[in-house]
Amino acid sequence: AIRDGKAKKPIIAYVGGSAASAGYWLASQSTEVVVAETAILGSIGVLATLQDTSKKDAEAGKMEFISSNAPGKRTDLSTDEGRARIQRTIDALEGVFIDTVATGRGVKPDDVIAKFGGGDVLVGSAAVAAGMADRVGNFEAVILELAGRSSSPTTSRRTASMSDEVITKADHDLALEASRKSGLAAGLTAGITAERGRIKAILALDEAKGRKDFALHMALTTDIAADAMGEVLGGAPLSAQAPEPDEQQEPERSIDAIGGLVTFNGGPAPKGDKEKTKGMWASAIEKSNARA
User: How does residue 156 score in pLDDT terms, banded at 50, 70 and 90?
Assistant: First the structure.
């Protein structure tokens, strides 16, 4: 991926600590390798650690059977042939490693073997002298080069289509945060406006007449759209008309309330209201669920 990417734009690998083994495998594929004075690079090669458990297995009574046509399925590390087999495997892997580094650095595999540490690591300027890296530098300088503030070779590789105007990372982050907050505020305002419109539309429905309390409750506690709420409200019974208050009737004071709370004794609720309310909710819930 790094090798393919550098065909489209410069990719710089910066090594501040270490790029060893697989780390250097990756770094070597970039357009340029910049290293700190104390950076270590290399460890090109393959190491395998195996343990011979045949003696313990035999003492434990463990027996293993291998199919007739797979003699190489298990390697006897106690024999020269077995150890040679392992050596051939890791040498083959090393060959892939060396060829990959050679391709990335634009050198011959023999140069990698002879000059790139032979499995050891090289430090800073020594790695540059060997061809493992391109120059000694610091991370901040590399960032400035990529931002177009330097006339270094890195900067000269910038494409002609890039703007001459330089935007720092700090400015970019501030602009991005401001844009994000602006977008959130705009979205929140739009959402509040839309919800207010939905509630007003529901309360203005013909089906809401005589069912204002129920319509308001459904508007505030559900997400049903106004055009779909008409059917829900239409199936609900009309609210019972509250009786006109008797001007001669004196309000009663509750003896249980502090200070004697004034209450109105409207008399017992009309019979059948409980059944009507229960039916109303059942109908509304059923229709709401059907549309969910």
Answer: very low
3-state per-residue secondary structure call for the chain? CHHHHCCCCCCEEEECCEEECHHHHHHCCCCEEEECCCCEEECCCCCCCCCCCHHHHHHCCCCCCCCCCCHHHCCCCCCHHHHHHHHHHHHHHHHHHHHHHHHHHCCCHHHHHHHCCCCCEEECHHHHHHCCCCEECCHHHHHHHHCCCCCCHHHHCCCCCCCCCCCCHHHHHHHHHHHHHHHHHHHHHHHHHHHHHHHHHHHCCHHHCCCHHHHHHHHHHCCCCHHHHHHHHHCCCCCCCCCCCCCCCCCEECCCCCCCCEECCCCCCCCCHHHHHHHHHHHHHHHHHHHC
Contact 195, 226 (CB under 8 A): no
pTM above 0.70, yes or no: no
Q: For residue range 17-74, what is the model confidence (pLDDT) as tens digits?
A: 999 999 999 999 999 999 999 999 999 999 988 888 888 888 888 888 888 888 888 8
What is the C-alpha end-to-end distance of the chain, expressed in Å? 46
